[in-house]
Known about the structure:
Layout: H1 37-40, H2 44-52, H3 69-76, H4 88-95, E1 113-114, E2 120-122, H5 130-141
Antiparallel strand pairs: 1-2
Amino acid sequence: MPFDYIRPLLRTSSSKIVLLVMDGLGGLPFEVGGPTALEAARTPNMDRLASEGVLGQVTPIRPGITPGSGPAHLALFGYDPLEYEIGRGVLESVGVGLQVGRADVAARGNFCTLDEQGNISDRRAGRIATEEAIPLVESLKKITIPGVSTEVRHV
């Protein structure tokens, strides 16, 4: 077992721990020299959590390596992302009940917003509402690729 070294550290406890991962919270300013969305936001609940909890930063793999959120999340739970190569597509697929086999490819994506010239103006479509996203997903389901079986889900 790859984590045998952890067994001697385990202790039974009735307490609970909350691990709050604010993945994707950072951002760039909307205007040069201006605040980021987080800096401009009113954050009383986050401020309270920060003042009453314990904060830290983690290097999930190695200095200089910026992992995707799937491998980084697994690293937080003790899985070596260099040994267990599991991406976000697989995690989200399993999360909605799809079975993912060794020969399968699981991918995830975001809808984006295009400006009048057809350029991407928001790579995450402003977090569009589920009611707006579902018809788009239904349109994607109609796309067929000869010799390939596909499954498209809204997550």
